[in-house]
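TASK: fixed-backbone design
INPUT:
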């Protein structure tokens, strides 16, 4: 574009912007949403900032333009300054929620902390905005491992973290959410758990994880309905609110009054629900939560597989809510006697209405809906904006339609929401939105990379590579584009080009944490552990909360023989997520190899954090055994915790002293009293035992045991029965395969040959007069009762 033409466009834009500002209708962001030419919006926003350096709309508009061009650090700076300039408005909540996009990529992300502090100091900010700001400050406190600050921030947010749990209650899958189980009828010491027997209230293994109640490690069956119970003390009569975050189906009762319900079975959209208000008297109150695991979908926002986060705040009509001074939360059923029924009255909370006179306010609302995963409402809002943008002008909304250029930002945002929803129909619509964006603005980085990702999935690799290469030439300062290019080269094993792309990414943004992590993976694949360790050290310095980087650093240092430093890295990774059994195993390995630390403590932590994982008990037993200490009970517990793993059963049974099957006949007596050929003159062999046992476990996995003992009377009997076939060759453990010769010798040698029908077992030494004994076990991980019945369709015949 020639300079004179550009000057005229800038002047024209400035004139229209001045006219809009004069009547307080539109701002710079509104014009960008209307589809104004991006270069003109950028020049106009810079003109506005010359007169008003703190103008929030101009700052935000420049931020979105930088994001469209793949310059994420610059976009972050503009967004943070826009929040500081307007902490009270809906812009602040939307941009604070959307800041999550910068967490993994931008070095200066911690500059968000003083922004959040300023939001909390400002008067008139909404409850939702303050909540998002407090969550970010809690995030940074966890990064800094500041336990005191973490506790303070959790109190401000009203997180309820002390709970008693009982699970699972299983009857009919998702329909169990609508079934009334025993805990809803009253608090008792124990309940009958279908398939598991008696279940009692117990504390969460390892405690609450980042404020979330977790049922994950409570039972060997990781699904069904779980109940959580706690008691809260409200210091005064008043009005309060409960807020829920979960991707499961959840119902909440306070003193028997239902206040909240998130029905994932029926498809309730939002992971973060609008709060439920209630009035209550001062004193102790019972909180009961029902939680059905949603196995159909999960949210990346939720750090646990099965659970929820519940917070309680005081409700002030002027600001929407705040911390409850003197709030207590205790998981103690002895407080049941202090709960008085009645006095709790539900109060419906409605979100504030969004005016129809502001494009930017409605765009901000759609962003908030995206990040709370209320996709249906977000899509509807953005589609309405796209339909209406032609009826807007500098004077505001109009009844007349005006032809306007494509609104790149609205189209892109709609694509984000449709893509995040993930359904097949909406993924196709998302692709359409991205295609329209790149037709109007070919250098739009997020849309081009999204289309390249789809082409790669469809096997159109070279088309995707051409797209991203062209984009890299157009926007060479975007680390994100170079990372995408490196990923494409990696898929085809073009190593020199992958290395070059990674170096270009770090040259563009030297402290980009995503680029550093990808470089460390590349160096590890290329057998460059020292370089990888240096890269990972730089990465964890910039992003101290990057658990995977700490784990990888530990693995790399362990491979280099630096066991002490590796153990430190593993410990840091465990601080970020304690229920990581694999990391504890590696930590124990470092302690053993390096001759320091306490392996017994590592394995004891495994048992504490994951009490239903057999590996903790097994490794603790082995370590104790090395010290000459009795471990049979730990072996027994290991056997009990994972009974479906039959490849482990015989070893554990031997170690624990459980060496017999209570239903197995007395085999030695059968052999001693076995008949002779004269007793069956017309038979070439006799079956002494055909034993079959099927154990169906609580998760519908089964273990199958079979034992067959034959005595041969003739050569034809040996040829007929001397070779036996085990159907399942993969999940089978042979316990006995032996021959007892006519003179009483026991031969354990066998020949095992894989065949198309299974394992063919030939027992050596089989001659007329000998006895062969084959005993084996198989297991399967069939996951539903119906699958098990379909899989196990044999019939059994009996005769006297």
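OUTPUT:
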């Amino acid at each position: 574009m020639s300079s004179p033409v550009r000057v005229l466009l800038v002047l024209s834009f400035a004139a229209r912007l001045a006219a809009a500002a004069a009547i307080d209708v539109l701002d710079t962001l509104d014009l960008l949403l209307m589809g104004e030419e991006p270069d003109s919006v950028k020049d106009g926003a810079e003109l506005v900032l010359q007169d008003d350096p703190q103008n929030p709309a101009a700052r935000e508009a420049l931020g979105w333009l930088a994001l469209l061009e793949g310059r994420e650090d610059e976009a972050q700076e503009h967004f943070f300054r826009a929040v500081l300039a307007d902490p009270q408005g809906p812009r602040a909540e939307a941009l604070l929620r959307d800041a999550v996009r910068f967490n993994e990529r931008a070095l200066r992300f911690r500059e968000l902390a003083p922004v959040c502090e300023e939001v909390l100091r400002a008067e008139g900010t909404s409850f939702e905005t303050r909540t998002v700001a407090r969550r970010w400050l809690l995030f940074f406190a966890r990064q800094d491992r500041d336990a005191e600050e973490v506790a303070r921030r959790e109190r401000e947010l009203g997180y309820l973290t002390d709970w008693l749990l009982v699970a699972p209650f299983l009857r009919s899958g998702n329909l169990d959410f609508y079934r009334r189980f025993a805990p809803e009828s009253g608090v008792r010491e124990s309940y009958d758990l279908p398939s598991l027997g008696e279940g009692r209230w117990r504390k969460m293994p390892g405690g609450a994880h980042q404020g979330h109640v977790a049922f994950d490690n409570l039972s060997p069956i990781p699904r069904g309905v779980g109940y959580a119970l706690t008691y809260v003390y409200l210091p005064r009569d008043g009005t309060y609110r409960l807020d829920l975050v979960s991707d499961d189906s959840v119902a909440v009762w306070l003193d028997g009054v239902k206040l909240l319900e998130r029905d994932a079975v029926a498809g309730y959209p939002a992971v973060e629900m609008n709060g439920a208000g209630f009035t209550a008297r001062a004193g102790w109150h019972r909180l009961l939560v029902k939680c059905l695991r949603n196995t159909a979908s999960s949210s990346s926002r939720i750090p646990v597989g099965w659970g929820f986060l519940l917070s309680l705040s005081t409700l002030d009509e002027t600001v929407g809510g705040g911390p409850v001074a003197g709030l207590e939360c205790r998981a103690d059923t002895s407080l049941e006697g202090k709960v008085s029924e009645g006095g709790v009255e539900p109060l419906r909370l409605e979100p504030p209405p969004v005016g129809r006179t502001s494009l930017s306010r409605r765009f901000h609302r759609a962003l908030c809906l995206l990040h709370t995963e209320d996709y249906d409402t977000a899509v509807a809002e953005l589609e309405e904006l796209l339909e209406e943008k032609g009826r807007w002008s500098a004077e505001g909304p109009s009844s007349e339609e005006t032809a306007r250029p494509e609104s790149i930002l609205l189209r892109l945002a709609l694509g984000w929401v449709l893509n995040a929803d993930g359904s097949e129909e909406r993924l196709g619509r998302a692709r359409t939105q991205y295609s329209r964006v790149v037709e109007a603005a070919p250098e739009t980085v997020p849309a081009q990379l999204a289309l390249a990702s789809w082409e790669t999935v469809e096997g159109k690799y070279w088309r995707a590579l051409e797209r991203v290469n062209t984009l890299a030439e157009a926007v060479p300062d975007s680390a994100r584009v170079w990372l995408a290019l490196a990923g494409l080269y990696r898929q085809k094993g073009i190593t020199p080009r992958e290395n070059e792309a990674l170096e270009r990414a770090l040259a563009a943004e030297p402290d980009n944490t995503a680029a550093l992590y990808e470089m460390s993976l590349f160096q590890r694949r290329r057998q460059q552990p020292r370089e990888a360790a240096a890269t990972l050290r730089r990465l964890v310095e910039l992003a101290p909360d990057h658990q995977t980087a700490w784990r990888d650093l530990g693995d790399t240092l362990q491979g280099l023989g630096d066991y002490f430093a590796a153990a430190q890295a593993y410990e840091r990774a465990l601080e970020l997520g304690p229920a990581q059994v694999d990391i504890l195993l590696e930590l124990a390995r470092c302690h053993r190899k390096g001759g320091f630390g306490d392996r017994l403590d590592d394995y004891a932590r495994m048992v504490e954090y994951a009490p239903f994982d057999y590996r903790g008990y097994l490794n603790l037993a082995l370590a104790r055994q090395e010290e000459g200490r009795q471990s049979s009970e730990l072996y027994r517990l290991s056997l009990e915790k994972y009974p479906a793993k039959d490849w482990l059963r015989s070893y554990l049974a031997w170690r624990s002293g459980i060496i017999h099957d209570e239903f197995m006949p007395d085999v030695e007596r059968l052999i001693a009293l076995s008949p002779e050929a004269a007793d069956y003159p017309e038979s070439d062999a006799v079956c002494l035992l055909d034993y079959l046992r099927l154990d169906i476990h609580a998760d519908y996995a089964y273990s199958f045991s079979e034992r067959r003992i034959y005595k041969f009377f003739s050569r034809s009997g040996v040829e007929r029965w001397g070779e036996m076939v085990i159907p399942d060759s993969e999940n089978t453990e042979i316990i006995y395969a032996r021959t007892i010769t006519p003179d009483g010798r026991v031969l354990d040698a066998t020949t095992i040959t894989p065949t198309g029908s299974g394992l063919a077992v030939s027992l050596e030494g089989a001659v007329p007069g000998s006895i062969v004994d084959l005993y084996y076990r198989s297991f399967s991980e069939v996951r539903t009762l119906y699958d098990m019945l379909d899989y196990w369709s044999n019939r059994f015949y009996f005769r006297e």
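COMMENT: The chain has four domains: 3-155, 158-347, 360-626, 667-791.
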